[in-house]
């Protein structure tokens, strides 16, 4: 582990650990299906046919849900941010509007989200008066135990698959409050109304993003630059629908089923990634509509993902950072840094383990996370060594302004080298992302046999390449 230096961000903080989180894709256990589960031999559609058979119904169905969520966000914003009202009433409105959105998407299963919030609060109350600062760890243990109990014994697989992402967000918010108490960021445990108003805020309850508790409390202070806010709302609205149609329609249309298996792998991985961008921009949309601003500037933005850093990556390290920025921040703040005193390896392992547990017991997810962690570890180590040997700006992260390398980013050889590493990252993303293809299969969870079959179809080529790279890094 001596050669394993963590990537340092602009503020000198470690940014290198996996937080590549698949969204809720349900894959089947049926290994008799073809790897891409499609009918072969169908004639290609015209763009006109694609519009009426896929684009129009997809957008119509998407708008039906999006507009209802945004409507409740607007109700919350008008009620709490256009007139002066008591703070306690604002928290009540936040809970009420959030509950309406939860009921729309999850029906009576919102009970499990409410129950988790109550149980987490009771754990914080029980640990708040202890001399040792264990609020965060205690809340984390309780939340994970609740999630696993529901998944294994209480909720059926299909419905748990439907609500698990929202359940994870509730757990993340409660756990962050626990660690803020431990770090004295919060002097006291919040009262029930602001606590539940934060957990079930209408702008973040269903799709995210995770926001710090202080950003929720400051929501009334963000009535500035309303014109800019409206522009950003429209932008995120258009982008969310754009990525929805790309995921559901255009990827299958542009790369037909008769293509080579690597093109098909790239297509299915891209379909998954664009579905993630859809959810990410939708979460930005609801947060902005509810009056949430995390930009700390006059631009009024909520940044969840940066697709251009994922689709055209410098490295896999950048992919895991820009895939879900709020979750990356949460993991770095409340998991990695907290566990860092126990050793780097323990911190990495803890981050992997917690992220997998929060997402549920899922072999495919665990396989992708562990693989991605090994990939980024190896990529970072080999590029750091090569950058040192050749004194060139070819590290996994772009060099800062104080870079002392002899060969800078503008040198033609450095550009070629970084471009080759980018192509390799795209190759690995296609291989890993194939696990979460766009097939309309069952929603009971993921089979280990299905996962192995996917990678076996591609001869485990990406794993062989990264193992060879790891061996080369060890030898040099």
Automatic annotation (TrEMBL):
GO cellular component: endoplasmic reticulum; membrane
Pfam families to which the protein is assigned, alphabetical: MBOAT
GO molecular function: palmitoleoyltransferase activity; Wnt-protein binding
Coiled coil: none
Main localisation: membrane
Residue ranges crossing the lipid bilayer per the database entry: 110-128, 134-155, 193-213, 233-255, 342-375, 416-436
Enzyme Commission code: 2.3.1.250
Superkingdom of origin organism: Eukaryota
Enzyme class: transferase
Keywords: Acyltransferase, Membrane, Transferase, Transmembrane, Transmembrane helix, Wnt signaling pathway
Membrane topology type: Multi-pass membrane protein
One BP annotation, GO: Wnt protein secretion
Entry's localization field: Membrane
Catalytic activity of the protein: [Wnt protein]-L-serine + (9Z)-hexadecenoyl-CoA = [Wnt protein]-O-(9Z)-hexadecenoyl-L-serine + CoA
Annotated protein name in UniProt: Protein-serine O-palmitoleoyltransferase porcupine
Family: Belongs to the membrane-bound acyltransferase family. Porcupine subfamily.
